[in-house]
Design goal:
homodimer; 559 residues; alpha/beta; Aspartate Aminotransferase, domain 1; seven-stranded mixed β-sheet; four-stranded antiparallel β-sheet; 20 helices; 47% helix; globular; pyridoxal phosphate (chains A, B)
Chain lengths: 559, 559
């Protein structure tokens, strides 16, 4: 053998080895693996660097644009990942990371995920998933029953019927919402007479055939941005995602909804779907689903409920009633990687009527053939991993009771936090919690008094200044790395709908304690009152407040 | 404390435990975990039952429709999964599972996946992904360079520029194709004059404004079904996914493509996109991308290449040229869970022009704000897991050389298998391999001779009979569990385009040997010649063949 041939042979053998020889138990990667199994919290604590490195710094470690020619050792890559990637990750499982909807995972999810990945099933068809297909159908059935509470006969009839699907599993809430609205759109313009249906002929001919000028989806101003994206993808156009005003509690105004429907009807715009929200992303409020269902029926619209966040509230006997009316929805979105505590990457939509999914049914010759049990015939995605195994395990191991505890403690904790904020003179609760989400901001007592008296222009100026402070505090707290709250922009009615930047808090991690919440407030206060970068703003704020208060003093008013 | 309170307290504590106490090392789940780390092949071999259980039997284990009220022990669920789910899974990593595009995984993918899941990052925004965002941008850059081969200055300029994205990561090829066509659609009908763009106003007004009667996507008849699905989702309608005839090698006929474009143009249908295929799903052929790029340019259409399967052929110095012209594509789909050997659930699309993705850009108040680095502003999905870490590791650990070996051995093996089939008198190669996919069927020698002479009606009858046999053999082989090939339906020109059911083989598993391929043929022959359920068909087949041959014998012809 020549030298060149020998080296080629060696490369081929190295290649076979990665497919046949497991990592040695003492290798870097195996040690990490064992370390995570034995002590996940310790691993994350030890390896994630708390203090934020600037992203443009981090980018330098990921600046090679050429795929390396020669293999690097597994151990080398493992060490690189530890030092450069893991170290600069976000500690989403931390009990003081309460800014987004990603929380800690139950320990058992890790080894279960390994089984799932080791099996590498593909749920698009039974030929690559076998038992995973009935298991996924069962999971869809269980969530369907959680929402719709049909009787045993219903599930015995439909759950495993290959011609139907009680829902569709997907990568997350966005695809779930898109799938639901795709179904809604296709059902709104079915085949009739010479028209072969919108799925065949498209939106242009559908509107022309049915005599409409457009097709709209209505949702409150607090609707998730994925709905606007869906309106774009589905060809309706983002302007046909019609935002409806909310009341002071961020719930849709049903009168305004009905008026908007009447107005659209007059404009010959088809009311394609009405979306209720069960847990708004920013404030955690639940729309009056019952009343919305009535309006949807009145206008012959598909009624979809986006319960990506709040769906699991149905597990709680105490709070289930907050979602009253959800059982009237034609479709409901759930995110499993949110309050089902499953790792990132899985959501689902369930359909009240098992025949609904047929509106988006498709087939191919080599898979998802007609009559097959293949789940891929009614999903937006094709190849999909067996994530439903993790939902299945969560539903069995935590059970209704376990999820109820998680939900109840989250909502109760949000109430505790709201109470805590309310007793601080220098913090202002912006939206009080209905589920486990609330918003607030740092706002000194004199500024709060001034805001109560201020006219529209003064309110704007005070809030503009508060906005800069809130933004600064949120960013600086994140960079310090001890705690994380997110921020968003709301338009409170009491401030003439001026856009206010607020801290947003999501309380889903069962390990978040009252003490942690107190510490978060203390750090925010400290940042606002001592950090140099914001003291000019703080001074201006107090001056403005003082001016407003002076103007409204009894003698000032008499003048 | 009352008994009820005590039990409630115990439940709460149990709930905290699953978030804080790792599985004990001797628990069922830990043992499985270690077992998989030490010996994945053995675990799969031992736990997956080879012989197929009927799915309606399996369904009985997944027939509960009620979410259990009380938690079950983790060990109990682990045992249930082993016995009922794992046992009845598909051994996709088996070297004799050559029917679909899911193959074995390199060992290092398993512990790496565990790190990914333990970190539970969310790539929609940097606030929940930090270093994962630059890492994903790097992966997109590397794949972009593999396809487009731009120079260093290009990647230094664009790869980490927060205002642009060289591509979009997603859950798989279907969403990648959909994303590319969404971009194509929005670019075809941009804002102009009084029109605010299709993303805002929708397809109906877009066509009306630009004076079209429809918008079409053109692709060969061998195009993946996800493209038809995309035409539906995007509101074009499935009929506007225009299939173009292929030549005898399953490649698009460019003359037919051009004619179709002219015809559509006359009908005032906008040529929105032309899709080339780099590795057809059923036969592994590559369209003449160069010529297609010219036609796309001629008609001002977006040129998309679906390289979900064949993209990694670019790693091979020997076979890279098969994809000549791909660098002219506006967008290219790659599936990472196919020939990048990453676990199920990740694909991506790259865009030649970094500004393309802006056609689908969207923002929200609490994340993906304007100016942020958040990758979520140009992806179809919202929350997404850190799967790009696994692609990153594959590209580093296997490197170009490693992937080249995998690609080369697959293509070479397909040629070997084709040769093997060609020397069997009773097997017929239907499509010869270009990449690592081929199709064939069991077809006795006399039947092959008869088919060579048969007229159209006789051909139909012979093929109809062969179809039943192929279907039977494929199903029975799968049920026996020693090996798996898939089946599909093709319309070979030599058989008057009569739909023929064929075995379909995908040779991506590096552990598949020539011996395994020989065994697969031997088992198929055995099934066809001895299995009782098909002998009537076999007899009929031989009689039909004999009749055809007799008719064409010299004396018969003279008669």
């Amino acid at each position: 053998m020549t030298g060149k041939k020998k080296s080629a042979q060696a490369s081929v053998e190295a290649m076979y080895r990665v497919f046949t020889v497991p990592e040695a138990p003492e290798s870097t990667l195996s040690r990490i693996d064992q370390n995570i199994s034995r002590n996940l919290a310790g691993f994350l604590q030890e390896h994630i660097v708390a203090v934020e490195r600037d992203l443009s710094e981090v980018e330098k470690d990921f600046s090679d644009y050429a795929i390396p020619e020669k293999p690097v050792f597994v151990s080398e890559q493992a060490q690189f990942l530890l030092d450069k990637l893991v170290a600069n990750s976000v500690h989403t499982a931390s009990p003081s990371f309460i800014g987004h909807m990603t929380s800690a995972l139950p320990y058992f999810m890790l080894p279960l995920s390994k089984i799932m990945i080791a099996l590498n099933q593909n749920l698009v068809k039974t030929e690559t998933s076998k038992a995973f297909t009935p298991m996924e159908r069962q999971v869809l059935g269980m969530i369907h029953r959680l929402v719709y509470e049909q009787d045993g006969a219903f599930y015995r009839k439909w759950m495993h019927d290959p011609r139907f699907a009680l829902g569709a599993m997907c990568s997350g809430g966005t695809v779930a919402n898109l799938t639901a609205l795709w179904v809604a759109r296709n059902r709104a313009f079915p085949a009739e007479g010479s028209f072969r249906g919108i799925h065949q002929e498209g939106l242009f001919r559908a509107l022309r055939y049915y005599g409409y000028e457009g097709a709209a989806i209505l949702v409150s101003r607090r609707g998730h941005y994925s709905l606007r994206k869906a309106a774009d993808v589905l060809g309706l156009g983002r302007e046909f995602l019609i935002p409806v005003d909310t009341d002071d509690d961020n719930r849709i105004q049903t009168d305004a909804l009905r008026d908007k429907c009447l107005e659209l009807q007059k404009q010959k715009i088809k009311i394609m779907a009405i979306c209720g929200i069960a847990g708004t992303t920013e404030t955690g409020n639940v729309d009056p689903l019952d009343a919305m269902a009535d309006i949807a029926r009145e206008f012959g619209a598909h009624f979809h409920v986006d319960a990506a966040w709040g769906g699991p509230t149905l597990f709680s006997r105490t709070y289930r009633s907050l979602l009253r009316g959800i059982e009237q929805a034609d479709s409901v979105t759930f995110d499993a990687h949110k309050q089902l505590y499953v790792p990132m990457g899985v959501g689902l939509v369930v359909f009240r009527d098992p025949s609904l999914a047929s509106a988006v049914e498709h087939h191919a010759q080599y898979i998802i053939r007609k009559g097959s049990r293949d789940l891929g015939s009614t999903t937006l995605e094709g190849s999909r991993p067996g994530m439903s195994m993790l939902i299945h395990s969560g539903l069995k191991i935590l059970a209704r009771e376990g999820y109820e505890i998680l939900i109840d403690q989250g909502i109760d904790k949000a109430q505790t936090f709201a109470d805590l904020i309310n007793v601080q003179p220098d913090f202002e609760l912006i939206t009080k919690p209905e589920l486990n989400i609330l918003t607030y901001r740092y706002c000194p007592e004199d500024v709060q008094q001034a805001l109560a008296l201020a006219d529209e222009l003064q309110t704007e100026k005070l809030n503009a200044c508060l906005n800069r402070i809130t933004k600064f505090v949120q960013k600086t707290q994140r960079e310090r790395g001890k705690a994380f709250v997110s921020r968003t922009r709301l338009e409170p009615a009491r401030y003439f709908h001026y856009p206010c930047i607020v801290f947003r808090v999501v309380l889903a991690n069962p390990l978040t304690t009252r003490e942690i919440l107190e510490d978060i407030l203390a750090e925010q206060r400290e940042l606002a009152t001592t950090e140099e970068g914001v003291q000019d703003e703080i001074n201006i704020l107090h001056q403005m407040a003082s001016a407003v208060l002076k103007q409204h003093q009894p003698d000032a008013r008499q003048a």
